[in-house]
Amino acid sequence: MARPREYRLSLSNSERKKVKKLQKRAASDYARVRYGIILHADENTWDGVPTYKQIADCAGVSVPTVIDTLRDYTENGLASATTPARSPASDTARLKATGDVEAKIVAKACSKAPGGRANWTMTLLSDESAVILETPLSRSTVCRILQRNEIHPHLSEYWCIPPEDDADFVANMEDILDLYQMPYDPRRPLWCMDEKPYQLLGESREPIPMRPGDAKKIDSEYVRNGTASIFCFIQPHTGKIFHFAEETRTAVDWAEKIRYLVDEAEPDAEKIILVMDNLNTHAIASLYKAFPPEEARRIARKLDIHYTPKHGSWLDIAEIGINIITRECLDRRIENINVLRNELKEWNDAYDQNPSPINWQFTTADARIKLRRLYPDISKFREERDSRRLTKQSA
Question: Which pTM does this prediction carry?
Answer without folding.
Answer: 0.65
